[in-house]
Amino acid sequence: MYEYGSFIEGNWRSGGDRFVTRNPARPSQTVGAYRSASGEDLAEAIRAARAAQALWRRIPALERGDLVARFVDALAERTEELARSITLEQGKPLAEARGEVGKSCAEARLMVALARRELGEVMPSARPGVRNLVLRRPRGVVAAITPWNFPILTPMRKIAPALVYGNAIVLKPSEYTPATACLIADASRHLLPSGLLQVVLGGGELASHLVSAHGVDGVTFTGSVATGRKVYAAAAGNLAEISLELGGKNAAVVHDTDDLDAALDAIVNAAYLCAGQRCTAVSRVIVHRRLHERVLEGLARRVGGLRVGDGMQDGVQVGPLTNERQMASVRAMVERGLADGARAIVGGAPAVVRGYEEGYFYQPTVLADVQPHHAVAREEIFGPVVSVLAYDTLDEALSILNGVEYGLTSALFSNDQRVVQRFVDESENGMIHVNHGTIPDSHMPFGGIKNSGVGAYSVGPSAAHFYTTEHSVYLKERP
Ligand code: NAP
């Protein structure tokens, strides 16, 4: 059982209101007992962050990178411990959780390497004897709010760039999955100066105080659109820089393919990993009518064969949903889809797993006969559910694809160059894949457009735009 309070200035706090987390596969099992941060704790964390950042920013960038690299190595050494904490609180299969730890370390190492490269420009001068430079400097103190679906990947996607670019960070992880964030903080002890990486524990109210606090120079939030709007408004009060990574209603368009099996394997993988609770999960399959029946049949066979169960057990492919609220929401969305006229060709109801009858398991589901105006075709479900929609023309496919408020990621399966070019030009998404699923690489910019995101993309070179400030410098030679 995990027992933690907030990690402030290198120490664990023991006071504050108690809250617990539960194993979603066995909700009667308490996994962790935590103490919420108070308003005073939060103020102290921000004060400590400012002090730590004032010293950290003076350390040469390469030396900072070395320290962060050692911290990342320490996390990698604790892969098993971190992965178990993810599965116990979030529910995903242990193998997937290990993969999440590996990907987090890979992305963090990329940020260490990028922070050693050029960070600015030499510009031509408009005046004699003057050299013009564009420099980037650390932003300051970053507040980070993360959801429960990736308990290490999302925090590390914020912690690594913040630190390598010379910032301090105060992280508020989801109250459903704090154990992993506490283990990250624990790994930083003795490797990073105290106050540089702090974790404050609590729920939405604490998060809202953090994002609106004075002394915070940038706010990076990953979560739902509804909460993202509140965070945007709160950060505006301080005119703090913002980065919002929000939801998606991602689609795979199957237009023509000479390897339908490979296409369906990629789609199923992208749709049902993490029980569909990935912002980049494929949630709609938009298929040309001539392939419609074959796609339904191929999806039904694959999805019907997925093994649902406790993520700690070998061979389980789909774990439980993370909490009761998510279970209720997925259930309600599917029921609404069925009432609207969709047909569940696989799944369509909670799953009963022997020995785990109280767990939040939902059957991997494929909904056919979905129309573009149905809620299941437009709203994020965030569960193991795919809606299949048929089309006759490419124009129609693009109109269905783009006819949602989200713009995170998309995939096309086609061998027709004309179709590929139009998709790359017209898919209204931050990330665009052709002939494979929607799982992103560890070195490519990650983000969305429309209601899926605001601000610089994370991962890779674009992260510097959020984690640093820009300065135009004019250096005149002494006469
Ligand atoms: P959520 O309800 O929006 O919560 C996200 C975080 O915000 C949690 O830490 C939550 O705290 C906190 N929070 C709650 N109320 C707040 C407030 N008033 N001000 C500031 N923060 C507040 O989202 P979720 O249900 O945890 O996560 C699922 C959503 O995240 C989905 O929409 C998914 O698509 C999105 N997501 C997007 C990306 C991306 O990169 N685009 C990645 C992953 C997930 P508590 O949990 O403690 O209440």
Key structural traits:
binds NADP nicotinamide-adenine-dinucleotide phosphate; single chain; about 475 residues; alpha/beta
Provide structural commentary.
By secondary structure, the chain is α/β, with parallel strands linked by helices. Strand 16, helix 12 and strand 17 form a beta-alpha-beta unit. The protein starts with a strand and ends with a strand. The mean pLDDT is about 95.
Identify low-pLDDT runs. none
Oligomer status: single chain
- Strand tally: 23
> Radius of gyration, Cα only, in angstroms?
23 Å
The average pLDDT is 97
- Helix-and-strand structural type: alpha/beta
- Strand arrangement, major sheet: 15-16-17-14-13-19-20
Q: Could you describe the largest sheet, including whether it forms a barrel?
A: 7 strands, mixed
Distance between the termini: 69 Å
Total DSSP helices:
15
The bound ligands are: NADP nicotinamide-adenine-dinucleotide phosphate
Helix content: 25-40%
How do you describe this structure in short?
This protein is an alpha/beta fold. The chain contains 15 helices and 23 strands.
Secondary structure blueprint with pairings:
Elements: E1 2-4, E2 7-8, E3 11-12, E4 18-23, E5 26-35, H1 39-56, H2 61-77, H3 79-90, H4 94-114, E6 120-123, E7 130-138, E8 141-145, H5 153-164, E9 168-172, H6 178-188, E10 197-199, H7 204-211, E11 218-222, H8 225-238, E12 241-245, E13 250-254, H9 260-272, E14 282-288, H10 292-304, H11 324-340, E15 343-346, E16 365-368, H12 375-378, E17 385-391, H13 394-402, E18 406-407, E19 409-413, H14 417-426, E20 431-434, E21 449-450, E22 453-454, H15 464-467, E23 468-476
Parallel strand pairs: 1-5, 8-9, 8-11, 9-10, 11-12, 13-14, 13-19, 14-17, 16-17, 19-20
Antiparallel strand pairs: 2-3, 4-5, 6-7, 7-23, 12-22, 15-16, 18-21
Helix pairs in contact: 2-4, 3-4, 3-6, 4-5, 9-10
Bound molecules: NADP nicotinamide-adenine-dinucleotide phosphate (NAP).
NADP nicotinamide-adenine-dinucleotide phosphate is lined by residues 145-149, 154, 172, 174-176, 203-204, 207-208, 211, 222-224, 227, 230-231, 245-248, 279, 380, 382, 408, 448, 452.
